[in-house]
Amino acid sequence: MNIMNIQKVVPVVLRVQKAEIQILVFRHPLAGIQIVKGTVELNEMLEDAALRELLEESGIKQGIVQSYLGIHFPKETGLNWHVFVCEVHELLAETWTHFCLDDGGLSFQFFWHPLFSEPTDEWHPIFQDLLHFIQIQYQEDANLSSD
């Protein structure tokens, strides 16, 4: 597949806990803290790809796409990342581990990070940039809906 045709999706899961917005993230055993992201398959709709990646990487089965946050252009990859906010209709734990088949099988440790807190050094740099993009887009969307 030509690199120009490859597209990525980012299904973002948010929740409010004690008046704080939190984003679902995971600790990758080899590559730091990340947000769920994956490649769109041939002839797959972006929304379908986002929900499939959410299932494959986190085990979350009952997600729906709520809104489109926009396209993130990571400096390092040259690929477009389509960012979606997803609603989840199942009870999610504070933390959990999901065995993902990526790269021959990896255990991802999921947890919640305050949306507007800075990422730590443990975050993979490309996902630090993604978090900043999500923070800005979320804030802009919130400002637009309050006008």
Q: In percent, how much strand structure appears in the residues?
A: 35-45%
Low-confidence stretches: none
Main β-sheet: number of strands, strand sense, barrel status? 8 strands, mixed
Regarding quaternary structure, what we see is single chain
Brief characterization of the structure:
The protein is of the alpha+beta class and about 150 residues long.
Description:
This protein starts with 6 loop residues before the first strand and ends with a helix. With 147 residues, the chain is of the alpha+beta class. The model has no long low-confidence stretch (mean pLDDT 91). It contains two helices and eight strands, in the order ββββαββββα. It is globular, with a radius of gyration of 15 Å. Helix content is 24%, strand content 39%. Strands 1, 2, 3, 4, 5, 6, 7 and 8 form an eight-stranded mixed beta sheet that branches. A hairpin with a 7-residue loop joins strand 5 and strand 6 (80-88).
How is the topology of this model organized?
Layout: E1 7-17, E2 20-28, E3 32-34, E4 38-39, H1 46-58, E5 63-72, E6 80-88, E7 96-100, E8 106-114, H2 125-146
Parallel strand pairs: 1-6
Antiparallel strand pairs: 1-2, 1-4, 2-3, 2-8, 5-6, 7-8
Characteristic terms for this protein:
single chain, 147 residues, alpha+beta, eight-stranded mixed sheet, 2 helices, 24% helix, globular
